[in-house]
Design brief:
By secondary structure, this protein is α/β, with parallel strands linked by helices. The protein contains 15 helices and 20 strands. It folds into two domains: about 150 residues, Urease, subunit C, domain 1 (Roll), CATH 2.30.40; about 300 residues, Metal-dependent hydrolases (TIM Barrel), CATH 3.20.20.140. The strands form six sheets. The protein has a four-stranded mixed β-sheet. Bound molecules: xanthine and zinc ion (ZN).
Length: about 475
């Protein structure tokens, strides 16, 4: 259930517990909060110790506002920002067999993506992908579509209709791709990219919700003329860019062979004017120190995709090493290299992958709960260049949020072990999700239980720019 786009927003008060990331290391937990969201979907005020909501309402003259309250086992949290996801690969989520990147592309990915030449197929795939990501609390996504203009434009239409904030990229690939799925020339790829830009401009002229994003698939899929032309287009439009980098050792070797004049993979993008502060680089696993330093110097951003990196046995990205150098990092599901459209799963996998990296590099590599949640929200906002508008709860930001609910085990049932067990004791309540709360947990512990055990059943409601875009029925 959601509020249609043509229904004007009402002012709303969100009352109860708010949790968001204050810094990379610290959660801000506010138990008696009131957030006022205006009819434009912006946070107008935020009161922290509001024992009496009526007083707050009266003080702000918001008596007519709609009120949403949390119960004792619920909290508001910023919507997740998926900085790298292939909407076009959603039907393959979970299907990757024993493959690694280059054979996975040929076996699973190109055949599926090419089928989205059919707009009706694309409609089914994209509609379900957007509904599903919204149900997991993804309020913003940087999407790869395919190289088909009509289907890519349809993805933008569907995001706008569903109310999801999105960057939509028509995938450019004029080299090393199968004949049935390839741009016929660099010029054709640029002309088609411009068609998608024009379309998005026509449906959302200020890019208030949907923005185009330039999308060279990755260096091996693009000829030098295409990379050059995309660099020019980036300079003339100032649009963001997304691509892949150093995901797989075979891919790194291939880039060395294809671009012998370049000193590194990162330098290929730099050479063509693509390595800028508006570039989102997915993966960045096998970077040299000089590449890391170049990325930092250009202020390019990194999308860490832990579930995908484990699934395709690509490697473990050294996130601490990237963060310590001052690079901005966010998280991506990378469906369908990644098996799940859930950003909560990406958050969880970022924690676990960092523990595997720690087993080789030392304990400092471990990421905390606070850190992985930061990457999934505020870090992601910086990666997509929207840190002034989303990622946390501050006055002036837009209300992109999720209501998270955990299952509070009734006291009587929690104490059953003292008496005789009856059939009733074994019954699980339906619809409360898989995270059980016994009443003694601190808020930090409740959040940890959500991160490690939660799923979309815990995401009760989702708002983007103040509009309700998903509600669990
Ligand atoms: O994870 C990935 N998914 C893709 O579709 C892709 N294409 C090039 N490199 C890629 N990596
Ligand atoms: Zn990818």
């Amino acid at each position: 259930m959601s509020t249609p786009r043509n229904v004007p927003l009402r002012r709303a008060l969100y009352v109860g517990t708010f949790i968001h990331c204050k810094t990379l290391q610290e959660l801000d937990i506010c138990e008696n909060g009131v957030i006022g969201v205006d009819e434009h979907g912006k946070i107008a005020f935020l009161e922290r110790d509001a024992e009496n909501v009526d007083l707050v309402t009266a003080a702000h003259g918001w008596g007519d506002a709609h009120i949403v309250r949390t119960s004792s086992s619920q909290f508001f949290f910023p919507g997740f920002i998926d900085t790298h996801i292939h909407a076009s690969q959603y039907p393959n989520a979970g299907i990757f067999g024993q493959s690694t990147l280059l054979d996975w592309l040929n076996t699973y990915t190109f055949p599926l993506e090419s089928s989205l030449a059919n707009v009706n197929t694309a409609r089914v795939v994209y509609s379900r992908c957007i509904s599903r990501t919204l149900s997991h609390g993804t309020t913003t996504a940087a999407y790869y579509a395919t190289n088909h203009v009509d289907s890519t434009n349809l993805l933008a239409d569907i995001c706008l209709d569903a109310g999801q904030r999105a960057f939509v990229g028509r995938c450019c690939m004029d080299s090393l791709s199968p004949d049935f799925y390839k741009d016929i020339s660099a010029d054709a790829a640029i002309a088609d990219t411009k068609s998608t830009i024009d379309h998005i401009k026509s449906i959302d002229p200020t890019y208030g919700l949907i923005s185009p994003i330039l999308t060279p698939r990755f260096a091996p899929s693009c000829t030098p003329p295409l990379l050059h032309a995309l660099g020019q287009l980036h300079r003339s439009t100032d649009l963001p860019i997304q691509t892949h980098i150093s995901e797989n050792l075979g891919e790194v070797q291939l880039v060395r062979k294809l671009f012998p004049e370049s000193t590194s993979y990162a330098q290929v993008y730099d050479m063509y004017g693509l390595l800028t502060s508006k570039m989102i680089l997915a993966h960045a696993i096998h970077l040299s120190t000089s590449e890391r330093d170049l990325i930092k110097e250009r202020d390019a951003k990194i999308s860490h995709c832990p579930a995908s990196n484990s699934a395709l046995t690509s490697g473990g990205a050294k996130v601490r090493w990237l963060l310590d150098s001052g690079i901005t990092v966010g998280l991506g599901t990378d469906v369908s290299g990644g098996y799940s459209p859930s950003m909560l799963e990406a958050v969880r996998q970022a924690s676990l992958v960092s523990r595997h990296v720690a087993m080789l590099d030392g304990d400092a590599a471990k990421l905390s709960i606070e850190e992985v949640l930061y990457l999934g929200t505020r870090g992601g906002a910086k990666v997509v260049g929207l840190e002034d508008r989303i990622g946390g709860f501050e006055v002036g930001k837009e209300w992109d949020a999720q209501l998270v609910g955990l299952a509070l085990v009734p006291e009587a049932k929690a104490a059953q072990h003292e008496g005789a067990l009856c059939a009733e004791s074994f019954k699980l309540p339906s619809g409360e999700g898989p995270v059980d709360i016994f009443g003694w947990e601190s808020w930090n512990e409740k959040v940890a239980k959500w991160v490690y055990n939660g799923d979309d059943r815990n995401t009760l409601s989702v708002w983007v720019k103040g509009r309700l875009v998903h509600q669990r029925s």
